[in-house]
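Structural prep section.
Before we set up the soaks we want a predicted structure of the protein with V47 in place, mainly to decide which crystallisation condition to try first. Input record follows.
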Amino acid sequence: MSANTSVRSAESILSSVISGERLSCSDALVLMEQASPHDLASAAVAVKRRISGDRVYYNNNFHIEPTNICRYNCRFCSYRRSASDPDGWNMSLDDVARQVACHAESGITEVHLVGGVHPEATLEGYLDIVRLVRRMMPEAAIKAFSAIEHIYVFDKAGISFKDGLKFFSDAGMDTLTGGGAEIFEPSVRERICPDKPSGQRWLELHKAAHELGIPTNATMLYGHIESHADRISHMDLLRRLQDATGGFNAFIPLKYRHAGNRMSHLGECSLEEDLRTLAVSRLFLDNIPHIKAYWPMYGAEATRSALSYGADDIDGTVADTTKIYSMAGVKSPGLTLDLLREMVAEAGFVPVERDTFYNEVASRR
Ligand code: V47
Ligand code: SF4
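Run finished without errors. Recording the tokens verbatim:
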């Protein structure tokens, strides 16, 4: 910071942000480290109310994780297996079809597809999965794969991001998940996921999607070895891209969970740290409409608190269809639509079922 820049107090920063001023990176750092939890929470909820009123969104979705076999080896990952591991899985198209068939009559509006990057994954193989889901669920939105999976098969096929994404769009994909962003700062990435594509390439892939009119989500994996400044510069890169494209629907801060991976010795950050990160993200990302408190990662109790810190989305029914967090030690009960609604109402907000694009789904109660 230059010598003539004075550091503002957290109270003065919060009153400017409530009146609509954009947060600078240095002010966001002050909030992250010095604001009182109570003041942060009320500012984040005031900003959230400006965007989505009393509404908190949930959706009716399920996940398909076609494989947990992965050619990368992120140190935080509890889910990844190598091809020779007995508890690795790699679904055939028939396996995928059987899983989709289980959800055929359940009012699902979104299928979330994500998994490990199998060393033998190909563009055609991924497209076949998307086409199959599209045939079996013509009405549901397909949120297909992370940037990391896309980048792997596009590089293998020797095609540009835009050409590859057009194939996915033609196959029936509507949007991309926000996974694989982790922390963009190269020195952190080098230590937690050294063999994964860079943050720069993650951003380029999402930019290409937005330029084709394909909306996406963005995540940030926090609570391990990164600093507060690393979190802010991650969000700054997202905010800059969003200024250019407007293509992000939601930001999802993902808390590092420590069981069963090679960074377990770090333990986990506190709930207060989770809530601060969430509130600062709501205040900093003034151009991303939705902040998602992903309940399978927080658990039901912490999700309720997250709603008082600016989140306006809790994701969906998910059922027991994701293993990423259960394998990292999170004990979350499968939540039904009724329980999701109850959780939102208990926190004092109005539960609204949304589709993937945040349109309200007519009530089916
Ligand atoms: O990129 C892996 C994270 C992500 C751990 O787009 C871990 O709507 C915590 O991207 N502790 C995949 N996190 C999940 C993901 C996601 C989740 C929910 C909604 C959306 C969306 C996307 O899971 C990975 C990585 O950052 N992850 N291991 C762990 N031990
Ligand atoms: Fe593979 Fe994803 Fe796990 Fe990294 S986080 S090892 S890319 S499954």
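Observations: The mean pLDDT is 93.
Flagged for discussion at group meeting.
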